[in-house]
Description:
Blueprint: H1 3-30, H2 39-46, E1 51-61, E2 65-68, E3 74-78, E4 81-91, E5 96-102, E6 105-113, E7 120-127, E8 130-136, E9 143-161, E10 166-169, E11 172-184, E12 189-199, E13 203-208, E14 211-218, E15 222-231
Amino acid sequence: MTAAPSLRLRALVTTCLALLAAPMAVAADLAPAQEPVPQATMDAVAALSPWQVRVRGLGVITHDSGSVDQISGSGLSYSDSVIPELDISYYLTDHIAAELILGTTYANIYGEGSIAGLGKIGKTWVLPPTLTLQYHFTDFGAFKPYMGAGVNYTMFYNQSGDAASDVDVKDSFGAALQVGADYMINDHWGVNFDVKKLFLRPDYEATIGGTTYTGKAKLDPWLIGAGVTYRF
C-alpha cells in the first residue's frame, strides 16, 4: 500500500524537473554565440611600442621680472617667441611615462624701471632640455589627459650685448610642471595640447660703460604648445 504513493511522488518530481529543464535548454539554444576577439586586433594592441614622439609648435611666454643688484629700482623684461619643439616619451607602464622635451629659442633682454633708458641690454639663445615624469589617465577612451613634474637644465649660448658691451647669463637648474592631453585618432596617431611652467631664475653678469653689474633674471616662462603625437 505504501509503494504506490512513493512511485507517484517520484513520477511527480521527475515531471517537474523535466518541465524546469525544458526552458533552460531552449534559452541555451537561443543565446547568441560570443564573438571571439579578432587576432589582428589583439596583435595590433600588443604591437604598440613604449616609445612615443611629439612635434609641437610652442609659444614661450616669459615672466618679466629681475633686477640689477647695484641699481635700486631696476627691472628686466624679455621677449617672447614661437618655436618648434620635439619631445620623446617612454612608457614605463600604461599610466607612467618619462618625457624628454627639446627645443631652443632666444630672448632679448630689456632694461625696465630705473634703467628703462638703456633699452635693449643684450640677447641670449636658450636651450632648456626638460625631463618630466608623467601620469597618464586611461579611462576616457581616445582622450588621454596627463600631468607631470620634473627638472629643467637651461643652457645659455651665443650671448651678445647691445647697451651692454658683454652679457653672460649663467646656466641654471629649475623645476618644471606640466599638464596636457592627447586625442588619439587611431592606435598610432593623435593630436596634442600641452602646457608647461618652468621655474627658471639664472644669475647673470653684464658690462656697461666698463662696469660689471650682476643680478638675477627671473624668466619663469610658460610653454604653451600644440602638435602631433605618434606612438610607435
